[in-house]
Specification:
By secondary structure, the protein is α+β, with helices and mostly antiparallel strands. It has 2 domains: 4-24 and 84-186, no CATH class; 28-83. It is built from 4 helices and 10 strands; from the N terminus they run ββααββββββαββα. The protein has helices at residues 28-44, 57-83, 145-150, 172-186, and strands spanning 4-10, 14-20, 88-93, 96-99, 102-105, 109-116, 122-127, 130-135, 153-159, 162-170. The strands form 2 sheets. Strands 1-2-3-4-5 form a 5-stranded antiparallel β-sheet, with helices on one face. A 5-stranded mixed β-sheet has the order 7-8-6-9-10, with helices on one face. Helix 1 runs antiparallel to helix 2.
Length: 189
C-alpha cells in the first residue's frame, strides 16, 4: 500500500513530477457480508412449494455465496477506485505550476494543500507550507473505511476560489513529501 513520485528536470528550470498512486484496497469485507447475506437468505426463507428441501439448501447457499462474492468484490473495488483521484503528472517551476492545459502562475497561487478524497476522513491542521488535512483516527468504518482513506490523499493548488488537483491516490507521507518538494521549487522564484 505505497505510493510514490518521480522528479524529472525539464527546460526552463522546472521539474516534472509523476505520481504513482497506491493501489486501492480490495473491498473484501463488504463483499463477504453480502455473499453471506444471500447464502443465509437461501437457508432461512421457506421454499414456495412448502417442502423445504433442506438437504439441498446448504449446497445451494454455498454455491450462491461463492458466485456472489467475487463479482461483488470486483464491483465494490472498482467503485471505490473511481472515487479516488488518480496519480498525475505536472510541471513546477519558480514561475508556477502547469498541469495538462492549465497554467497556475506563482503570483496567483493562494496556497497548496494536502487533503483526503474520502469524505469525512480529514481534519484540518496547520503546517509551514500551507494547510494539510490529516486522517482522523476516529473515522467510522463504512463503504471505503480507513484503508481507502489511507491511500486517497490529494495535492491541490488553490488560485482565487478555484482548486486544481495536481495528483492523488497517495499516502499521507507521499503527499506531504510532494507538498514539500513543490513548495521548495516555488519558493525559488
Amino acid at each position: 500500500m505505497e505510493s510514490g513520485y518521480q522528479q524529472e528536470p525539464v527546460a526552463g528550470g522546472g521539474v516534472r513530477f509523476t505520481v504513482t498512486p497506491a493501489p486501492a484496497p480490495r473491498a473484501v469485507g463488504a463483499a463477504l457480508a453480502l455473499a453471506g447475506a444471500f447464502a443465509l437468505l437461501i437457508l432461512v426463507v421457506p421454499a414456495p412449494d412448502g417442502t423445504g428441501r433442506w438437504a439441498v439448501r446448504p449446497l445451494l447457499a454455498a454455491i450462491v455465496g461463492v458466485a456472489v462474492f467475487p463479482a461483488t468484490e470486483r464491483w465494490l473495488t472498482r467503485r471505490g477506485e473511481r472515487s479516488r483521484a488518480p496519480g498525475g503528472s505536472f510541471v513546477v517551476s519558480p514561475g508556477g505550476i502547469e498541469t495538462g492545459d492549465t497554467r497556475l502562475p506563482r503570483e496567483r497561487l493562494r496556497r497548496l494543500i494536502v487533503t483526503n478524497a474520502v469524505p469525512g476522513s480529514a481534519e484540518p491542521t496547520s503546517v509551514a507550507a500551507g494547510t494539510a488535512y490529516l486522517d482522523t483516527p476516529g473515522l467510522p468504518p463504512g463503504f471505503a473505511g480507513r484503508a481507502r482513506a489511507a491511500v486517497s490523499y490529494l495535492l491541490c493548488a488553490e488560485e482565487g476560489d478555484r482548486s486544481t488537483t495536481l495528483a492523488g491516490g497517495m499516502t499521507a507521507l507521499t503527499a506531504h513529501g510532494l507538498l514539500t518538494e513543490v513548495s521548495r521549487i516555488l519558493s525559488r522564484g
